[in-house]
Every structure is written in C-alpha cells, then in structure tokens.
Write a structure and sequence with these properties.
The complex is a heterotrimer of chains A (about 350), B (about 425) and C (about 325). Chain A is mostly helical and about 350 residues long. Chain A folds into two domains: about 70 residues, no CATH class; about 240 residues, MetI-like (MetI-like fold, Orthogonal Bundle). Chain A is built from 14 helices and four strands. Chain A has a two-stranded antiparallel sheet with strand order 1-2. In chain A, strands 3-4 form a two-stranded antiparallel ribbon. In chain A, strand 1 and strand 2 form a beta hairpin. The longest helix of chain A has about 40 residues. The radius of gyration of chain A is 25 Å and the shape is globular. By secondary structure, chain B is an alpha/beta fold. Chain B contains twelve helices and twelve strands. In chain B, helix 4 runs parallel beside helix 6, helix 5 packs across helix 6 and helix 6 runs parallel beside helix 7. Helix content of chain C is about 70%, strand content about 0%. Chain C has 15 helices and no strands. Classes of the chains: A mainly alpha (about 350), B alpha/beta (about 425), C mainly alpha (about 325). Chains in contact: A-B, A-C, B-C. At the A-C interface, helix 1, helix 6, helix 7, helix 8 and helix 10 of A face helix 6, helix 10, helix 13 and helix 14 of C.
C-alpha cells in the first residue's frame, strides 16, 4: 500500500474530524438561552456559573467579530477586533477538544470523558459481537444466494432480507425480549442489564457466563438486522462478479464450479462488501441505540437517551463526538482494508 | 481424420421472455491438427457463440440444441460435466478477448497461469509449476521476474501475452482465440499475431481465430470460414477465398478492409446490420442487404455447395460453374419486396440506392394480384404496386439437407 | 445511400412523459412484488385519509378504562389512560405517513437542489457541495437526528425538519450523477448558447430530466423517513403533540407491556411500520427497474434485484457497489 494513499486517507479523515468538531460547536450553540443555564443544573451557584462561563470562553465573542447579544442573537461587533481573532469561543472550544476536555456531566458529577469511558466498552462488546456474527452469516448467505441465483434459497434469502430490513431494530428487540425473556414466551434469557443486578460472581468465569447470557438477545437482535443488509450486498456483489470474464476464464481452465467460486468469485465479491459494511457502521451504531434502550444495556446508546432525558448536554455533545469519531475510524479502516485486499490500490 | 469435427451445430438461447433465439444454425466446421482457421463475420454473426459452444462455455441461458462436436472422433457434447472438465485446457484452451477482464485482478499472474497446471496435473509440485510458468513467460516474451505482479501492472499487449502463456500452460492441441487483438493498438496487434503464428508453428497447435478483420485471417490462417447470422456463408482456403470470394457477403467483407497497398479508396462497408437471432429472416439471411438478391433468396435457404478443394458456399447467386454472377445477370427483385419481406420479419433494412434503384424494370416477380399486401408497408417507397409477398416468406426452418450434393465431399457423420 | 428504416432511437429517450408513466405502470403491474407493495400502500393510504374521519378523535374514544386486553369493543385493548389503541393506531397511521411524506418531499427538494447544482455547475461548486454531501453522508444519520431533535425540542414540525435535514445526502449523490449525464446531452448546450441563465437551464432543462429519478428516490426516502420517525419517537424525541406508531411503541415499552404480556399494544404498530416500509421498498425496486433497464432480470427467476435501502442511513445503491466508484475518493468522503 503506497504511503501516499495512506496519507491521503488519513488527511481526509482528519479533515472530516475537524468538520465534525465545527458542526458540534454550532449545533450546541443553537440551543436557546444562555448556554451556561443549559449546560449546568439549575441548582448551582452564580459563582459556579461564572467559572464555567470563563472555562468555556463564553465571556468571549463567538467568532472573531461576532458576539452574542444579551437576547441571545448573534451580532457583528467589529469593536472586538483584533483581540477576538485569538480569543473567541470557537478557538477555546477547539482547544478544549484537543486536550480531550469535554466538560463536566452534571447528572453524574464527573468529567464527560469518564462517563463515556464507563459506557464505551459495553457498546463495543455488543456491536462487535453482532457485527462479527452478521458479517460471517450475512456473507455466507449472500455467497450462496448469489451463486445459486434464482434458486429457492436465493428467493428465500432475498425476501427474508427485505422483510428483515424493514423491521425497526428496537421493535425486533422488543419481540425477542417478549418471546425469550419474559414468562409470556419462554424465559430463556435474563431480560435487562449486562449482569444480573446484585449478583456476586465468585470468579471471572461466572462473571463472563452471566455477561454472555445477558449479551445473547441484544446481540442476536442487532445481528439479525445486520445480516439482512450484509446478505443483500454480498449477494448482488456475487451476482456481478460471476458475470465477470475471469470467472469464464476460470471455468475454461477446468476448475470445478466450487473452485471457480472459492478461488475467483468470492475474493473479488468481498471487496465491495468490505467497503459497504464499514460505510454502514454509523447505521449499526444508530441501531444499537434502540437495542440498548430495550435491553437496558449500559452502553453509549443508553447514555445518549439518558442524556437527552436529563438534558445533560455536555454528555450528549461528548457522545456525539465519540460516535462520529468511531464512524470516521471505521471508514478509514475500510479504506485500509481495501488497500490490503485489492492489489490495484496496494501496488 | 480431422482433429476437430463440428457437424450441424445448433445453439439456442432462451430469452428473458421465454422465447428461443437460434444464434448458431447448422454450422459444420473441420480443423486438422496444426491447422489455423479464421472464423469471420460481423459482430452478432454467431462466431463467438460457435467457439464458446465448442469449448462448452455457453452462458446459462444458452445450450447446444443439436449437432456434434468431435475431438479426435470423440463426441464432446456427449461427455458429462466432470469428464469434460478434465479435457478443458489440456485439449482445448481459449485466449479471451480483452485480457484486462479475462484475468483475475486480485491474483498474481503467475498463480493464474500455474492454476490449470496444478489442477490438471495434480502430481506437479508448486515449484515445478512455477518453473514451467517461467518458461511459458519466456516463450511469449515476458520476463519471468514479473510472475508475482498483478494484471493491472501490465500493459494491454503484455496482458494478452500472459493470456497466451496461460492458454499454452497445459500444452493443448486446440487453441481458440476469441478476437485476441481487438482491444490493442495496431503495432501491438501485429506483435501478438506474429507471436501466435510463431507459437502455432513451433508447437503444432490447431488454432481457431475469431475476428471480424479479414486481413488478420489472411496473415495468420490456412482457411477461412465466413459466418452470417448464425449460418455458414462460405469457407475455403485463405488464398482461394480471399482471391475469389463466391459469397456476396464475403465479397463485401473483403471490400470493407482498407487496402493499404492498392489505390486509396474508402472502405465500402456494408449498409445495414445483421438480423437479430430473435427475429430471423426468411430464405438467405443476407438477402435484405445483398445487391444480388433474387426472389429465390427471399424464399429458399441456400444449400451449401462445394466448389473444388474444400471451398464451400451457400448462395443462390453462385452458378453451377462456381462463379458469383454479377447483379446484371440475375433476375432481380425490387428493393420494395426486400423491404416488405424484411419488415415482416422485423429486420432493419438499408437499401443501397445505387445498387437497387426502385424501378419497374427491377421487378423480378411480375406484379400480380396482391392477395396479401404486407400490412406494414414502408412509407416513402415510390414506384409500381407492390408485388405480393410469397406465402413462404414466413420464417422457414431449414438446414442443410443431408442428401444435398454439397456435403458429398465431406464424411457425413450423423448424430 | 438512404436508410429506409433508420435505427430507432432508444425507446426510453423518445418516450413522452405520459408514455413514461404508462411504462412505469406496466412494469409495476408485471411485477408481483411491486404490485403487492402498491396494494399495501393503497390500503394504508385509505386508513390514513378516511380512518380518522370515520373513527373520530381519540380522546373521546375508549371506555376510560386503562390497560384492557383486546376485545370486540377494543380490538387492540386500551392504554394506561384508557385510550382505545385501535383508534390510536388509526390516527398514528395518518401522522406517520404524513411525517414520512412531508419530510421526504423536503429532503428531496434539498437533495435535488444540491445534486443538480453540483452536477450542473461543476468545478469548484461541485467539489465543495459534494464534500458537504459526503460529510453528512458519513455522519450516522440517527445519531445526528437524535441530537438535533433533542436540541430543537419535540414537536411534529421539528421532527419533520430534522428528518429532512439529515436524509438528503443520498438523494444529492444520485441526482448529481444523473445531472452529469444530462448535462452532456446536446440540448443543454444549445439552450446555454441562446443566453439562458444557469438557474433557468437547471430548472427548465435539467430538472425535468432527472425528475423520474427523483420520484424513484422519493419512495425509498419515504421508507427511510418513516423508519427514522418511528425510531426517534421510540427514543423519546419524537412529536409529543400527537400519536405516531413510534410513540405508541415508546409508551407500551415504558408501561411494561412486554412483561405484562400486552402484545396487542406493541405488535400492531410495529407490523404497520414493517408493512409500510417494506411496501415502499418494493415499489422503489420497481422504479429502479423502470429507470435502469440494465437491472432488468433475465429470466433467472422471479427474485428482484433489490436495491438495499438503508433506513435512516446511506442508500446502498448499486452505485456504491461498483469497485471503481468506491475507489473514487471524491465519492467516499474523506
């Protein structure tokens, strides 16, 4: 893989990250009223408010030459120049970001970074498990459906995927919960949370068994939703690849049908699938929010919902940044994977 | 005995709406060991389909509906898939058109060339296979250092050389080249053809070269087979066919080759397009575009007749003496009839105004009582009332009659 | 030389607008799946339009008895405040479809304007507009919509706005590539030569030519919009001033319908979402076929080539599958 390729992709990712930070800055300045009032609980003292105001640079102009009037509207005020070129809210907030200062959560009374760190790994566990299952199963279904195009299996795969694709993930989660975690169906699995509340695990094995039992339903929900998309992508990729000339060449050389598919069709069909799977990573994270909510999974999805309910805007802002960062990294990984898998990019 | 004997090959495709299109219709073809045959025709004439049928590489909706393909006397169409798979590449290999797409973009060229060796000779070690690929690369003029490169790192001509090396990997006796030089520029084309010619002589390969370029055939091949709309038009030794073509289609094809040595003139071209196999033309399929078309050409399929040493032609306008009669000597049909006949079969017709002036003198068929005037009479054709279209104009299924005198000089093998 | 019957120009080009509609209808009718989609949509449209009129307002409905099980009097039972859930679902049909349609129209306007401007103006305009599009394309739609909705506050119009603002990039990309091909055609140049302004050409020449694609995309966008509204409402940032399917699901979940076994509370709205989204996807698949004959299946069985739509996310079009496209950094976004 050429270093120019890597550098270009890295540069693009950094640019996107910067744009996300800018968007984030403006988004949360769209909030009506004094930001300090929305960023802090109502109970804090005036002194605390002033401290935060200075920390966030809210006493400064929003942008060079642009100030917020007492009524909350943005106005152009050139008298603040040239000082506002360096001292403005925008630069201050970017600076805070650079030192990973995302502010203080006021519902949990600790730094936002710590709150996010608490909820980060459960989401990684859930999304990672679901994505791996969905990739393997979806790709296998797609390969078979695309190979045996028009067969009963293919029709079943397509129609099943289309239906599954129309199912909201949180609702699928509710159905599975109802059927497999309550006495209305067969209560095979524990319903909510990541570990049984109040349980004292004697050793690590017992702890993980408990976690896995809790993980099963939410991961299955998320995986089911993703399998549909992956299968459809892999299938159409297979169908396209099987039309390619080198597949005919492979047949002409005397390879058996399964050798043709394994050695020539699948490696090529996987290439676009890898990209699309990584591109849909944002969708996966979005889907995880609903699933986490249903199963009270203590991940970032639940955190977002809690933050919205409690109007904990520093946390909301932080989670938005982290999720956007994850998506950008997923895209970057896809590009790199493509570079590794496809010699046309690599060499 | 000929190495390859194709008899009465009929290939049909099932179209999306369930209709059947006959793309190759009763083609006979013979090839001796070490001989090179040029398969010529415009695109859509069934030449590639014929080759794919021989190599059993037809797409899923295509099938050999009738006929035999014999290699060394053994009917390949009778073999089951597994048995035929063992013969692939060891007996028949193919050089595909456009090696960019025919090579797998994500696998090293060396591995792709070695792949058939490892498959057909399971006892070969990887190292031995690699050595053989290196030899093959040298044979076709590529440095063996490039074994580990990928197809996109090669130029068009070099990729075609890789393709040729791959085709020779299992020492086949028959190589089919499907327009192997089409996508290349003229200089590279010449190099590749030269290479093919040299390898053929050195290795004693039989070659079927598919092309729409008759000059390529003249340089490379021993015999020419001209196809039109899925049927054989004319076949014969290169010198005879190119020196004195008998079929008007061959004549027009030869005229459309720019003659670099002779006087400068624009290639004549052939107006119109070949009929689509979905809506076949009655009689001789070339008649809507032929300047020698007679009433007979609209109604009767011309049988294949032999004139001298392996020179066979299917044309009504060729006299018993083996001479293509010029338009002046023939009873002519009006272009109007040709148009009417063609329009009933849904074919686009282009009338060469210079050759087919629409006038009463041209009426080969006397204007009679129009019993069934063509429903969709084309507008804009001035002249006398349209003669009736003979009832037999409706598409007729005909094949070369087994008892026809034309095939007497060939060993007739019935399926 | 005269050609008696010149090669007919490709039929699609020569079609008038009406022919195009007839053709579209014939494709839909010939395809079992899209016909099924049409039937489902018609049924839901009737429920959405006539249902609330026939059923009357929700508040007066019901026996004011909470948490009833399904019965003849209350087909889906009642909720915590004694609302008849059958009536609520009928009203929700109207709201959900309304949000889907209005948000999609807004989103199509934004996306089409962006796409046409980028494709037609080209150069620097194209580069910047596409960079913006790709940026929004990369951002996770649902997360962005959640944050926006949380900031703007829950109301019907805000939710519509949020959905429109977050779901236009896919349309912009599709319309841009179509505009590029339209621009290449001669008549645009001819119109420019007569001194028409760019804005006028885009409106009068380009827009009519990409309109078919806009319509086809709308069906897929509506599906995505309904999906997104349902999820937003379930997560608590949907419209609070009225009932949608998502809000019913949210309330059923909050009320513990899952553990209480009140299946009639959460199953019907979910089924409705699935049916409508599926129907729009099926019809959208037929539109793809109408617009792109290359997708036409060749007698290889009734399985359609579905264009996988990503509800609330990027449109997984065939476009993004082709290898060179995805290698194009311009398309992928940095």
């Amino acid at each position: 893989m050429g270093s120019a390729f890597v550098l270009r992709k890295l540069g693009g990712a950094l640019l996107t990250l910067f744009a996300i930070a800018v968007l984030n800055f403006f988004l949360f300045r769209m909030l009506p009223g004094d930001p300090v009032n929305t960023l802090l609980p109502r109970t804090v003292s005036q002194a605390q408010k002033n401290a935060l105001r200075i920390h966030l640079g809210l006493d400064q102009p929003v942008f060079p030459g642009i100030v917020r009037s007492p009524q909350g509207a943005l106005e152009i005020d050139l008298s603040t120049l040239p000082d506002s070129l360096l001292q403005n809210q925008f630069l201050t907030s970017m600076g805070n970001l650079l030192v990973l200062d995302l502010g203080q959560s006021f519902s949990e009374r600790k730094p936002v970074t710590e709150v996010i760190a608490d909820h980060f790994w459960p989401t990684v566990l859930l999304v990672g498990t679901a994505e791996v299952i969905a990739l393997v199963v979806g790709v296998l279904i797609g390969i078979r459906a695309g190979w045996r195009r028009g067969s009963r299996f293919d029709r079943l795969a397509i129609n099943g995927s289309l239906v599954l694709y129309a199912v909201p993930l949180f609702w699928l989660g509710m159905l599975l919960f109802y059927l497999f975690a309550t006495s209305n169906g067969i209560a095979l699995f524990p319903g909510q949370q990541m570990v049984t509340p109040g349980a004292r695990h004697t050793d690590l094995v017992a702890y993980w068994v408990d976690v896995l039992r809790h993980l099963f339903l939410p991961a299955a929900t998320l995986a089911l939703g993703l399998i549909a998309g992956n299968a459809l992508i892999m299938r159409s990729s297979m169908v396209e690849t099987l039309k390619d000339d080198y597949v005919t060449t492979a047949r002409a050389k005397g390879l058996t049908e399964s050798q043709v598919v394994r050695r020539h069709a699948i490696p090529n069909a996987l290439l676009p699938t890898v990209t699309v799977v990584a591109l849909t990573f944002g969708y996966v994270l979005g889907g995880a929010i609903g699933v986490e909510e249903v199963y009270a999974w203590p991940g970032m999805g639940s955190l977002i919902i809690d933050a919205i309910e409690r109007k904990d805007f520093p946390v909301l802002q932080g989670v938005f940044l982290v999720i956007a960062l994850c998506v950008v990294i997923a895209n970057l990984v896809a590009d790199m994977m493509y570079g590794i898998l496809d010699p046309r990019v690599r060499t | 005995m000929a190495l390859l004997e194709v008899r009465d090959l009929v290939v049909e495709f099932t179209l999306g709406d369930g209709r059947i299109a006959r793309v190759v219709d009763g083609v006979d073809l013979d090839l001796d060991a070490g001989e090179a045959l040029g398969l010529v025709g415009e695109s859509g004439c069934g030449k590639t389909t014929t080759a794919l049928a021989i190599a059993r590489l037809l797409p899923a909706n295509g099938r050999i509906a009738r006929g035999t393909v014999r290699l060394d006397g053994q009917d390949l169409t009778a073999l089951d898939d597994a048995a035929f798979r063992d013969r692939r590449w060891t007996d028949i290999s193919v050089i595909f058109q456009g090696a960019m797409n025919a090579l797998n973009p994500v696998r090293r060229v060396g591995d792709q060339v070695a792949e058939p060796i490892l498959i057909h000779e399971p006892t070969t070690t990887r190292e031995a296979a690699r050595r053989r690929v290196a030899e093959l690369f040298e044979l076709v003029g590529i440095s063996p250092d490039r074994l580990r490169e990928y197809p996109h790192q090669f130029s068009g001509g070099m990729r075609q050389r890789v393709m040729i090396a791959m085709a020779l990997a299992c020492r086949p006796r028959l190589v089919i080249g499907d327009e192997p030089t089409t996508a290349l520029d003229v200089m590279v084309q010449a190099q590749i053809l030269e290479l093919l010619e040299r390898l053929r002589r050195e290795l004693g390969l039989a070659l079927i070269l598919i092309t729409h370029d008759l000059s390529v055939v003249a340089e490379t091949c021993d015999r020419t087979l001209v196809m039109y709309a899925g049927r054989l038009a004319e076949t014969g030794p290169v010198e005879r066919l190119h020196g004195g073509p008998l079929h008007p289609y061959s004549l027009r094809l030869l005229r459309s080759v720019p003659d670099l040595s002779g006087e400068r003139r624009l290639p004549a071209g052939i107006p119109g397009q070949p009929p689509s196999p979905e809506s076949p033309v009655s009689g001789c399929r070339f008649h809507p575009r032929c300047d020698r078309a007679m009433a007979q050409c609209v109604t009767d399929v011309p049988v294949v007749r032999s004139f001298g040493e392996a020179h066979r032609v299917a044309c009504h306008a060729v006299g018993e003496e083996g001479r293509l009669r010029p338009p002046g000597e023939l009873p002519r049909i009006p272009s109007a009839l040709a148009i009417a006949a063609a329009s009933t079969s849904g074919v686009e017709v282009a009338v060469d105004a210079d050759v087919l002036p629409v006038s009463a003198d041209d009426l080969g068929v006397p204007p009679g009582d129009p019993r069934e005037p063509p429903a969709d009479r084309p507008v804009g054709v001035a002249g006398p009332p349209m003669p009736p279209v003979p009832p037999s104009v409706a598409p007729v299924r005909t094949t070369t009659d087994a008892s026809a005198p034309t095939t007497d000089d060939l060993p007739r093998v019935d399926a | 030389m005269t050609s008696a019957a010149a090669a007919a120009p490709s039929p699609a080009r020569r079609h008038g607008r009406r022919d195009a509609w007839t053709h579209a209808w014939s494709v839909i009718r010939a395809d079992r799946q899209s016909m099924l989609g049409m039937v489902i949509l018609v049924v839901f449209a009737i429920i959405a339009i006539a249902g609330p009129i026939l059923a009357g307002p929700i508040d007066r409905a019901g026996a004011n008895r909470p948490m009833l099980d399904p019965s003849l009097a209350h087909l889906f039972g009642t909720d915590r405040s004694g609302r008849d859930l059958f009536l609520t679902n009928i009203w929700a049909t109207q709201v959900s479809l309304l949000v889907g349609v209005v948000a999609s129209i807004l989103s199509m306007v934004i996306g089409t304007a962006m796409g046409i401007a980028a494709g037609y103006l080209g150069g620097r305009w194209d580069a910047w507009l596409m960079r913006l599009t790709d940026f929004f394309y990369v951002l996770p739609t649902l997360v962005l919509a959640l944050v926006l909705a949380a900031i703007m506050g829950p109301s019907l119009s805000n939710v519509i706005l949020v959905i429109a603002v977050t779901s236009w990039p896919a349309t912009a990309r599709v319309i841009r590539s179509q505009t590029l091909t339209v621009r290449e055609r001669m008549f645009v140049d001819r119109a420019r030569a007569t001194g028409a302004s760019s804005a006028r050409i885009m409106r009068r020449q380009v827009l009519p030519n990409v309109f078919g694609l806009v319509l086809a995309n709308t069906t897929l966008t509506i599906a995505g919009a309904i999906f997104l509204e349902t999820t937003l409402s379930f997560l608590g940032v949907g419209p609070r001033d009225t009932y949608s399917w998502g809000r019913i699901l949210d309330e059923s979940f909050e009320a513990g319908a899952l553990t209480l076994g009140k299946w009639a509370w959460f199953v019907p709205p979910g089924v409705a979402v699935v049916l409508v989204v599926l129907a729009f996807t099926l019809v959208g698949g037929a539109f793809d076929e109408i617009l792109d004959p290359r997708l036409r299946r060749r007698g290889a069985g009734p399985g359609a080539e579905p264009d996988a739509t990503d509800p609330g996310g990027p449109l997984l079009s065939i476009e993004s599958l082709s290898v060179p496209e995805s290698l194009d950094p311009e398309r992928r976004g940095g």
